[in-house]
Specification:
CATH superfamily: Hypothetical protein
Strand content: 35-45%
Radius of gyration: 13 Å
Number of domains: 1
Distance between the termini: 13 Å
Order of helices and strands: EHEEEHE
Largest sheet: 5 strands, mixed
Low-confidence stretches: none
Number of strands: 5
Strand order of the largest sheet: 1-3-4-5-2
Shape: globular
Number of helices: 2
CATH topology: Archaeosine Trna-guanine Transglycosylase, Chain: A, domain 4
Structural class: alpha+beta
CATH class: Mainly Beta
Length: 107
């Protein structure tokens, strides 16, 4: 089963159903529709949920629109969004980076 890590502040949002979408850059897991996933708290290393990918599409980070935030946490600005992903993935992230927009359902 493929594993995805989530920042600790996002765990409750996943569990309460308000976060049903995750964005992933530089997909090293070859995520695809129908994959079953194990969700891991990035800070504790503990498994907190299982899910299945029910929809997936790709988009360039600079082309993200308000519609793409459905089921995803919001950012105060585009600059904050870029900064957040630089924190996760490092300086390789820029506005031309491809994002996998992954909709999931908990199992």
């Amino acid at each position: 089963m493929k594993k995805l890590k989530f920042a600790q502040n996002l765990v409750p949002l996943v569990l309460d159903g308000s976060k049903t979408t995750t964005w992933r850059l530089f997909d090293d897991k070859n995520l695809s529709l129908g994959d079953r996933l194990e969700f891991i708290n990035a800070e504790t290393g503990e498994k907190f949920a299982q899910a299945e990918i029910v929809n997936m599409r790709e988009k360039v980070l600079g082309d993200i629109t308000e519609k793409d935030f459905t089921g995803h946490e919001m950012y105060k600005s585009k600059k904050e969004m870029l900064s957040t992903y630089e924190g996760y993935y490092g300086n390789a992230v820029d506005w031309d980076t491809v994002v996998k927009i992954i909709k999931f359902k908990l199992l």
